[in-house]
Write a structure and sequence with these properties.
two-stranded antiparallel ribbon, Arc Repressor Mutant, subunit A, single chain, elongated, about 40% helix, two-stranded parallel sheet
């Protein structure tokens, strides 16, 4: 196949794929990221003032225990005023943002009455996750 024909064919395929798919606005089968993000938002809104939770804690409370990075991505992408983002910290209790956002997060937490022990939030401010009941699962065979 001559080089010109191959390039033309590739350009047509790329144009066709771009025109048939609008990025971000299509609910694709098997992709539950919109539902997952909504569950994360509900879990973040459930954190009361004066309490904090970790990225992993939010993910677990939303029903996606292995998606702590997706929680961080959501908080990075959403507008600051849409979520109480300042109530979500690292698992060790430290603020994981940097610069002005770290100062803002610490100021907001202090305004809500959260105390710090060095760089870490006082452990009493952390929410505990309710234990997931395992009654529906059969016992493990030994």
């Amino acid at each position: 196949m001559p080089e010109r024909n191959r390039i033309s064919t590739v350009k047509k395929r790329v144009a066709k794929s771009r025109s048939s798919f609008e990025w971000g606005s299509v609910k694709r089968p098997g992709n539950d990221s919109g539902e997952r993000e909504e569950a994360f938002r509900r879990a973040i809104f459930a954190i009361p003032p004066g309490k904090v939770n970790s990225y992993g804690g939010v993910a677990a409370a939303a029903g996606y225990p292995r998606y702590h990075r997706a929680v961080a991505r959501l908080l990075r992408q959403d507008h600051w005023d849409l979520l109480p983002w300042h109530r979500v910290l690292g698992a060790d209790g430290e603020i994981k943002t940097s610069g002005a956002s770290a100062r803002e997060q610490k100021a907001r937490l202090r305004a809500e009455g959260v105390s710090f022990e060095g760089k870490r939030v006082n452990r009493r401010a952390f929410l505990t996750l309710p234990m997931i009941e395992e009654d529906n699962h059969p016992p493990l065979a030994v």
